[in-house]
């Protein structure tokens, strides 16, 4: 009974947050001299108005699910992985480099190999920060931010020099056709890639690992209370590295899917902050794999719709305001909950004998 | 014989006090009447509302209803400052002293005598000296707090209240940190203060102390007063019954044991603490199957580090630790568990439980990756839930809700859950540290019975406790620990409390027997 109540609450809070955020943003739209109803209608049409729009929304949603899962898994295991951006870039870069050379391989092999390379490289990149935390105590927030920059410049260098092709935006050559993710649907120039299926599978896998396996038990125990975990015979060092690696594998997968399904190559702007968006997505989705799918879909559709809204003269930054308010309110719900727990604790302390 | 109530008859009269916290009625129409110049005990289990009541008298909390009179005058306390001005002083369980200031500086802190802007320490020192001599509160006024023993720090706290003109002293569980000798010294001081006309409110849950030093007793249970007794006319049994609400076995019934083979052997073990200083300095001991070996000592003499080294949570840097004939020195907690170790840790919140986990997850901590709970990395939730239900049934953990987060269990039930889990792993050797800290009499009785049951099941038991009574009544053999070494190995029936106290203060068994014999 309590559990079902909590579930309703978990859905209700983000939903109300979105509505409140839209209302507040409406005020902003009025203030800049536009009609909010019209603007929102355009936004809705832009995100869901037709097959192409829906395809666009799904394409934007896919990497957000994966980076959201990456950050969310980290949170559940007690590590704050700010490095999804860098892990995604590394995953994309290396899977591209491998996939460029898989021309003679059929898709049944080329696609899984490329995906695994992306995951492996992302996992390894994140595991560096995990190992630094486990063995030297270096905080993962600092080390993952540093690793982000290294990944960013490494990627830029690779497409500017050794891998560079063509003119204009620095980019790598295209990957082998057999390594491209097959589109589910093609509307005009927009391809709805099968990446979304991979993202949903990843969410299910993450849920199973966290809730059904001893690995999930151990990473959660270390996240909640490392002392008790150690007392129970769980290695803290091993699980910190493992949690970072799993988190990084999901971010690396985001990079591989983006390279294989959307750009078909590596370019500097491939990640474009999607790793950082993963933090917002996992916050809104409350670190729950299913919640993360919906949160990514929300952010993805807001982003897609905002393009249409711009034609009315409403800046796409209004959408950033909506996103910001949603996160703020979801986070505020946590703040409120934390305050409630704190008060209850204080009451207990004051009310009982020490 | 009933006379009309007159607050002027009492030093403290708290009448009809009610204090409601959301969800808890902490004080329910409580009346506490303390006569001038008496030592008045307020006893009750954890959560009975003693501290809440005292916090209202000291101005930290305001009652929802009821009246507080001090020396016949009704007070409306807005904060501790008002209480201090009314002549009330409180000695908290955790001392509020500045470590690197001297005794005199600590005592005058916050009420410094000034000459202009300059703090007049010389005059302050004199007054402190006068005070300490007139009540027999011997302290070295120029020593730094960090250099003096706990018993003396407590005297400093008492002096602090007297320096501020306290006529009524509240002492919250003052003996928790003291050796038996220090406790006796404290009682001596309390009696002197009583002679000098001070009124003392003594909060405790130790019944022998109530009998030893107090004049009257107010017993509380679940926010209500369940008894007003004159100490001379009552007995511990009656007080315990009023505290718990049923008959309680105060002393465990223990049958003589027949220990079996040696299970654990430790030789010259050295362990460092977190500051990298030697905390355990070469201890050697053994534990046999079917034997409870106690380790007695005042907190902070290396017991924690010893336990951590024995349970795989801390490395020993020298020495040997044998379990069932195998060298297990510095093996991990996991490997030790696989070899038959169980551990009831002293801090159940930090080590014993993942509070955010549901009960059924905590019920398998340490065996979460073993059959039948886990098969090829997948947890079998049905098995785990069924197991937890049985565990809760057998060990009477309440409420019997496996899905509830363990954070929501009461302290006693959290401890029961830890004990249940560790006992059910069928250990060969169990390390039990502070098993009854913070528990009520009812739960303590239960845990003690359980420890004896372990012994009777031929488990080797190592019991580490700061509660001397507990070690004395449960153990078959006792090692006394002081500053990282054992000062003696004794059998509880051959040693007196006084001798134990001397060993806990650093005297060896040989010295103790020597001095006692020549006395």
CA-atom Rg of chain B in angstroms: 25 Å
Shape of chain B: globular
**Helix and strand element order of chain A:** HHHHHHEEHHHHHHH
Q: In CATH, what is the class of the largest domain in chain B?
A: Alpha Beta
Q: What is the spatial order of strands in the main beta sheet of chain B?
A: 6-9-10-3-11-12
Quickly describe the structure.
The complex is a heterodimer of chains A (354) and B (519). With 354 residues, chain A is an all-alpha fold.
General description of the model:
The complex is a heterodimer of chains A (354) and B (519). Chain A is mainly α and 354 residues long. Chain A folds into two domains: 1-32 and 315-354, no CATH class; 63-287, no CATH class. Chain A contains 13 helices and two strands. In chain A, a hairpin with a 2-residue loop joins strand 1 (183-187) and strand 2 (190-193). In chain A, helix 3 packs parallel to helix 7 and helix 4 (84-99) crosses helix 11. Chain A starts with a helix and ends with a helix. Chain B is an alpha/beta fold and 519 residues long. Chain B has two domains: 7-244, Rossmann fold, CATH 3.40.50.300; 262-518, 3-Layer(aba) Sandwich (Rossmann fold), CATH 3.40.50.300. In chain B, 33% of the residues lie in helices and 26% in strands. Chain B has 18 helices and 24 strands. In chain B, helix 13 crosses helix 14 and helix 14 (411-424) packs parallel to helix 15. The chains are: A mainly alpha (354), B alpha/beta (519). The interface between A and B is large, with 27 and 50 residues.
């Amino acid at each position: 009974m309590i559990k079902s109540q909590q579930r309703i609450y978990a859905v209700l809070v983000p939903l109300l947050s979105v509505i409140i955020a839209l209302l507040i943003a409406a005020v902003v739209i009025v203030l800049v001299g536009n009609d909010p109803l019209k603007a929102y209608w355009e936004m809705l049409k832009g995100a869901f108005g037709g097959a192409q729009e829906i395809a666009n929304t799904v394409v934007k949603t896919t990497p957000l699910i994966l980076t959201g899962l990456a950050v969310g898994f980290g949170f559940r295991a007690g590590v704050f992985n700010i490095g999804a951006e860098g892990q995604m870039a590394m995953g994309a870069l290396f899977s591209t480099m491998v996939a460029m050379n898989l021309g003679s391989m059929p898709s049944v092999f080329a696609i899984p190999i490329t995906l695994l390379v992306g995951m492996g490289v992302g996992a390894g990149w994140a595991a560096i920060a995990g190992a630094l935390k486990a063995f030297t105590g270096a905080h993962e927030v600092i080390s993952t931010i540093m690793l982000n920059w290294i990944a960013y410049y490494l990627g830029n260098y690779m497409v500017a020099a050794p891998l560079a092709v063509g003119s204009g935006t620095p980019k790598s050559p295209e990957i082998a056709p057999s390594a491209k993710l097959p589109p589910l649907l093609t509307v005009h120039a927009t391809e709805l890639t099968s990446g979304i299926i991979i993202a949903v599978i990843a969410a299910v896998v993450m849920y199973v690992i966290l809730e059904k396996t001893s690995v999930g038990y151990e990473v959660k125990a270390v996240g909640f209370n490392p002392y008790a975990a150690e007392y129970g015979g769980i290695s803290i060092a091993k699980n910190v590295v493992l949690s970072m690696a799993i988190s990084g594998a999901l971010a690396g997968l985001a990079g591989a899917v983006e390279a294989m399904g959307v750009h078909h190559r590596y370019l500097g702007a491939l990640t474009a902050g999607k790793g950082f968006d993963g933090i917002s997505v996992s916050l809104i989705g409350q670190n729950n794999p299913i919640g993360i799918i919906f949160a990514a879909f929300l952010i993805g559709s807001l982003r897609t719709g905002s393009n249409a809204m711009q034609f009315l003269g409403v800046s796409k930054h209004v959408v950033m305001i909506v996103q910001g308010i949603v996160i703020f309110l979801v986070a505020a719900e946590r703040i409120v909950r934390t305050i409630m727990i704190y008060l209850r604790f204080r009451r207990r302390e004051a009310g009982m004998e020490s | 014989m009933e006379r009309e109530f007159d607050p002027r008859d009492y030093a403290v009269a708290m009448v009809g006090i009610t204090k409601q916290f959301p969800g808890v009625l902490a004080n329910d129409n409580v009346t506490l009447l303390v006569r001038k110049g008496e030592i008045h005990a307020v006893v009750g289990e954890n959560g009975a509302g003693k501290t809440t009541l005292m916090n209202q008298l000291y101005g930290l909390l305001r009652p929802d209803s009821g009246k507080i009179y001090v020396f016949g005058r009704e007070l409306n306390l807005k904060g501790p400052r008002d209480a201090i001005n009314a002549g009330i002083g409180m000695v908290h369980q955790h001392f509020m002293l500045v470590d690197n200031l001297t005794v005199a500086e600590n005592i005058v802190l916050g009420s410094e005598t000034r000459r202009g802007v300059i703090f007049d320490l010389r005059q302050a020192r004199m007054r402190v000296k006068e005070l300490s001599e007139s009540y027999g509160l011997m302290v070295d006024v120029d020593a730094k707090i960090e250099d003096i023993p706990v018993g003396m720090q407590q005297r400093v706290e008492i002096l602090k209240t007297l320096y501020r003109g306290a006529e009524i002293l509240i002492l919250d569980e003052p003996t928790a940190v003291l050796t038996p000798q220090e406790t006796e010294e404290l009682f001596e001081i309390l009696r002197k203060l009583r002679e000098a006309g001070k009124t003392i409110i003594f909060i405790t849950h130790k019944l022998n102390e109530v009998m030893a030093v107090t004049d009257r007793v107010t017993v509380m249970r679940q926010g209500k007063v369940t008894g007003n007794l004159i100490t001379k006319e009552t007995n511990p049994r009656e007080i315990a019954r009023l505290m718990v609400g049923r008959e309680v076995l105060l002393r465990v019934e223990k049958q003589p044991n027949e220990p079996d083979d040696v299970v654990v052997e430790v030789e010259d073990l050295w362990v460092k603490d977190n500051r990298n200083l030697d905390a355990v300095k070469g201890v050697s001991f053994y534990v046999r199957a079917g034997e409870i070996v106690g380790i007695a000592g005042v907190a902070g003499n290396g017991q924690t580090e010893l336990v951590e080294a024995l349970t795989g949570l801390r490395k020993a840097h020298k020495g040997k630790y044998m379990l069932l004939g195998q060298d297990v020195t510095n093996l991990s907690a996991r490997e030790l568990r696989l070899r038959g170790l169980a551990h009831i840790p002293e801090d159940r919140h930090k080590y014993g439980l993942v509070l955010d986990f549901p009960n059924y997850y905590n019920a398998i901590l340490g065996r979460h990756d073993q059959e039948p709970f886990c098969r090829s990395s997948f947890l079998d939730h049905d098995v785990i839930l069924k197991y937890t239900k049985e565990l809760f049934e057998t060990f009477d953990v309440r409420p019997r809700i496996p899905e509830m987060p363990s954070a929501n269990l009461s302290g006693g039930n959290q401890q029961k859950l830890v004990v249940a889990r560790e006992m059910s792993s069928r250990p060969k050797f169990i390390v039990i540290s502070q098993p009854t800290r913070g528990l009520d009499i009812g739960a303590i009785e239960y845990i003690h019975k359980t420890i004896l049951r372990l012994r009777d099941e031929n488990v080797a038991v190592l019991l580490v406790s700061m509660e001397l009574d507990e070690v004395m009544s449960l153990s078959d053999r006792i090692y006394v620990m002081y500053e990282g070494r054992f000062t003696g190995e004794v059998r509880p029936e051959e040693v007196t409390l006084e001798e134990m106290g001397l060993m806990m203060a650093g005297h060896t068994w040989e010295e103790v027997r020597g001095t006692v014999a020549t006395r």
